[in-house]
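agent: user wants the structure for Cobalt-zinc-cadmium efflux system protein from Neomesorhizobium albiziae. delegating to structure tool.
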Amino acid sequence: MAHAHGHDHGGGHAGHSHAGHDHGSGTTDKTRVLIAACLTGGFMIAEAAGGLLTGSLALLADAGHMLTDSIALWLAWYAFKLAERPATQRLTYGFGRVKTLVAYTNGITIFAVAVWIVYEAARRFIEPAPVLAGPMLVVAVLGLLVNIAGFLVLHGGDRDSLNMRGAVVHVLGDLLGSVAAIIAALVIMWTGWTPIDPILSVLVALLILSTAWALMRDAAHVLLEGVPANLDRDAIAADVVKGVPGVRNIHHMHVWSLDGANNMATLHACLDEGVDAHGAVRAIKERLAQSHGIDHATVEPEYGECADGHADEQHHH
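agent: tool returned. relaying tokens verbatim.
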């Protein structure tokens, strides 16, 4: 991933990168993610050691989860760093999508960890292992405090960013993992019933799976150039036809998001005879930007026949 910038053949002239606009929260988000990464990364080592020493799977599950989390947070930080780079000659859209790619990869890693936890829990259920409840409780409580700190740091960030959402999801999962480990430790201390340890670690795993799935689904939608959830392509096309004088119909319209925040569109606009093409294109772009939040549009004006020869594919009268 790191070598992606090698392709800049003096491509600095691709100056007007539409991927570059940051809605004011980029730098603070980046710092937030970095702090959270250091917190979880540091404590993950302590928790893994605690899990091995006390024989607790709930702690190991939480540590495994924290491992993917700290990797996730480091990657999220790296993605923010990359996204600030200008577009290059080879990567004309810039690096904005690295974040989405990271969110997706992240989802896959969490999936793998959750599956491992379930497998390990099944094994322990068949032959229970002894657990040192006292030390386990201490480690779990410390873990909870670290996760609460991480959550508070990230919680102030940008709600709409997939990358930030991924980071928060991770830390929330950790927080619940620590709570599960605390409950398991208390139950073992009071009753000596060790199967509670694998049972709760499976609950943590299932929780991790559901959040990972939601994150992967949203990231995949962006990567597949899907229409952003808050936009309706056909309604936008109809609105442009209605709102811009001289536009007969709009077809071949595509609406997609670069990184979950910046929306783009391409379309063919069939104009009435005698309408000034330049003025119409400008009016369409203004309408898209102001009414629909699409700040980068490519508009192809036409009179009569569509240049592609099959204009009726997406007619909007």
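agent: one observation worth passing along. Residues 233-314 form a domain with the Alpha-Beta Plaits fold (CATH 3.30.70.1350).
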